Structures are given as structure tokens and as C-alpha cells.
Amino acid sequence: MAYVTVGQENGQPLNLYFEDHGAGQPVVLIHGFPLNGHSWERQEAALLDAGYRVITYDRRGFGASSQPSSGYEYETLAADLEHLLTHLNLSGVTLVGFSMGAGEVARYLGKFGSAKVARAVFAAPIAPYLLKTDDNPEGVEGSVFEGIMADIRADRPAFFRQFFQNFYNADVLKGTRVSDEVLQASWNVAVASSARATLACVPAWLTDFRSDIARIDIPTLIVHGDADRILPLEATGARLHKLIAGSELVVIKDGPHALGWTHAEELNAALLNFLGKA
Length: 278
Hints:
Distance between the termini: 31 Å
CATH superfamily: Alpha/Beta hydrolase fold, catalytic domain
Number of domains: 1
CATH architecture: 3-Layer(aba) Sandwich
CATH topology: Rossmann fold
Strand content: 15-25%
Helix content: 40-55%
Strand order of the largest sheet: 1-2-4-3-5-6-7-8
Largest sheet: 8 strands, mixed
Structural class: alpha/beta
Number of strands: 8
């Protein structure tokens, strides 16, 4: 098991767990809430078979990484990613962020620039800005997120059970594109995450990434399902496409939020096609 130290809490190291496989052009896969790096298994297999080096890691608070009491805002999460890229001496990397992980990609490029990064991929992204404000009327009312936090505080395991129903569109896709076992496995990963991290990530979802997005100067792909109930296409991916000049948008028909599992072949094809243009 491999770790990179990204800080300390009370004199103890804070470590991120990562896996680094294969050779060739490096691709870093950044997972969504509330899963871990293993949620990319279907993308990792396709990328390795195509000759890429694939790095996955667990966000702090999740998976096998340390579970500190703080650091769940995007400034720190982007700095964690920079620690990993520096530790592995990576350059010419493709950053692929899913859902909350797309926030790390946006903030990383806004904060650190593209010196180490050749391409960016946003899958079912949280960007550009979820919160409804006077200058962001397409956003979501803040009361929605207050309700999510209340549900997490009241019964975190029950919250996750319902969350994954909409994450996978289980009422429509169960038995064809997702099984009961996948839903259970996702729940198992989620409940093993830090309770504090689970709650602290919700305010982070309201980060305004628009200034970060304005700094993106590399080839960019956006992939989104048109049946996403967690981060609907028109509120996120479609808007992001308009904000990044020259970006590509691939819309997956009937795709829910969990594209990496339910529509892995479609996502993998879009990803490999984009990488092949380098």
C-alpha cells in the first residue's frame, strides 16, 4: 500500500492512499463523494489496456486515507492533489475528476496552473457553481444543502441508502446496468468514510469555481449523462462547456450520475477518444 503525506494533525501524519499502475502517459482519476479510488475500476482497466499509466487516490476522509477533522474545502483538497503530483514527479498528466472530484480539477488548475497538466476531463462535474445567488440564478437554493446536512446528522447510513438510489437511478437501471450488490458495496464504502468528512464536504459543494475555470488553458472534455439526478446536465456540465472555450461536451443518453459504472463503455470510449487526440 502506498501513501503520500500531505500534512499533520496533532503531530500525526495525514496520509493519502494512492495506487499507481502501468506505464505511458499518466492519467490521474479523482473520485466522487462518498466513494474512493476503487470506484474507477472500469475506467482503470480500460486505460491500462490502452497503454496508459493510471493513478487513483482516496480523498482525505475517505477510503484508506487519513480522516482528519479539517481540510475539506477545495483549497486544501487541491493542495493534496499537488502533493501527490509532486511526490510522483508527474508531468504531462491528464486529470480526470468525477462529480466532487471535478472540483479538485477546477481548483487545481485555478491555483497551480497547467504546468504539470496536459488535459482535463470533467465527468458529471460539480462545477461551475451550484449555489443560487443573484449572479448565479441557475443555481440551487441554499436550503437544499441545509436539508442534506440535516439528513446526514440525523442518520448518515440512511442518507447514503437513499443517496445511492438516485446516484445510480436504481429505480430504472437496477437489474440491467446496476445490481443490488453494487448498491450495497457503494453503501459499505460510504459508511466507512469519516462522519466529519461526510458533513464537511457539503459546504464545499457550494464553491464558486468560475474564476478557476477562466484560467483553464488546456484541452478539456466534459462528459455528462442526460438523466443525472444528482448534478443535472443543464445546471452543471452544459454550463461548464459554455465557459471553457474549445471544450468538448459528450452527453450520454439515459446516463445517471454514476456514469463510471452504469455507462462505463460509453464513458471509456469518450475518454480514450479524447486521450487519443493528444
